[in-house]
Amino acid sequence: MDKKYTKKSMEELKEQLTKEQYRVTAESATEKPFNNKYDSFYEKGIYVDITTGEPLFLSSNKFNSGCGWPAFSKPITKKVVKEKIDASHGTVRTEVRSNIGDAHLGHVFSDGPKETGGLRYCINSASLKFIPIDKMKELGYEEYLDQVTLEYNFSRQR
Fold this sequence. Notes:
EC number: 1.8.4.12
CATH architecture: Beta Complex
Largest sheet: 6 strands, antiparallel
Mean pLDDT: 91
Keywords: Oxidoreductase
Number of strands: 9
Order of helices and strands: HHEEEEEEEEEH
Enzyme class: oxidoreductase
Distance between the termini: 33 Å
Number of domains: 1
Low-confidence stretches: 152-158
CATH topology: Metal Binding Protein, Guanine Nucleotide Exchange Factor, Chain A
Radius of gyration: 15 Å
Shape: globular
Organism: Clostridium vincentii
InterPro entries: Met_Sox_Rdtase_MsrB (IPR028427), Met_Sox_Rdtase_MsrB_dom (IPR002579), Mss4-like_sf (IPR011057)
CATH class: Mainly Beta
Helix content: 10-25%
CATH superfamily: Peptide methionine sulfoxide reductase
Oligomer: single chain
């Protein structure tokens, strides 16, 4: 999987990303709450790193936390993210970065739903690209289709 996705130079990122996407992913900025692309978005598919295309989160693990940013209970696998202590803004938090691209994604908190492990990955929309379920195979993400389809079918039966 790692050979498929590569980290880009800062120059490439500046050319390929919007100013907001660059600020968030390369400069560790935070987009405004409740005013971003994926906060209230609940289509089926996967969310990938905007800088590399590396798969990060399944739509089935997304939930409405009310925080103003997309929230996920867990990443696709723990290998796709790395966590580091963030002592900025007068508080200590755990920053979440993409593994391959080293893009700033957001932060993880321990106030998520208990039934899914208790974590809340609070992620900036600007760091993500959504791949809808009907485009996953075409775009090379077919290995995750079963996870999205299984969860989708399960959630439809509730």
